[in-house]
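User: Could you go from structure to sequence for me? I need the amino acid at each position, not a summary. Structure tokens:
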């Protein structure tokens, strides 16, 4: 297996998940080493594309433009500390880098959300990050060409179930994936 991995890099999916240690992409997707290109960030945040060099944007671009992944999954999860902090208005003064990072999720908090509704915010955040992702130039090109598909998931830590979100713009959930 390691010899094969040393000579080949051909993941089929870019998996953007939380850096939470309980969220293990290969376990969630029943994938083998080399099948997923993984980006893990606090709160599954995909910052808006901009002129500054940035790790998430570089990784997205590489996965789509160089590796040619066919699918991109943005996977939120239950009991997310980042979304809990935002939903419940926690004081993040002691962690200023975290506070700055979570500002990228401001669009997730806008709209019809109920204060303190962590599960609702997790779902809105997955959709908001998919919107940001779709605006990245390499992703926008691949979407226009039909060479990549976007998926929004929410992983339930307690049950191991994956909820597939309807990302067609109609809102609401569709099916369970796992």
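Assistant: Here is the amino acid at each position, in order:
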């Amino acid at each position: 297996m390691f010899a094969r991995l040393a000579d080949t890099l051909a993941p089929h999916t870019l998996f953007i998940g939380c850096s939470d240690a309980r969220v293990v992409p290969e376990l969630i997707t029943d994938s083998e080493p080399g099948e997923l290109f993984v980006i893990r960030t606090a709160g599954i945040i995909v910052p808006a594309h901009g002129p500054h060099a940035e790790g998430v944007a570089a990784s997205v671009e590489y996965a789509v433009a160089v590796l040619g992944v066919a699918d991109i999954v943005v996977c939120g999860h239950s009991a997310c500390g980042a979304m809990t902090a935002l939903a419940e208005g926690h004081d993040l003064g002691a962690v200023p880098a975290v506070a700055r990072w979570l500002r990228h999720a401001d669009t997730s908090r806008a709209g019809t959300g109920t204060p303190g509704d962590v599960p609702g915010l997790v779902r809105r955040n997955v959709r908001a990050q998919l919107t940001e992702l779709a605006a990245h130039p390499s992703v926008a090109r691949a979407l226009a060409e039909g060479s990549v598909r976007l998926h929004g998931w929410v992983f339930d830590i307690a049950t191991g179930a994956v909820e597939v979100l309807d990302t067609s713009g109609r809102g609401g959930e569709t099916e369970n994936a796992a």
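One structural detail worth keeping in mind: The radius of gyration is 16 Å.
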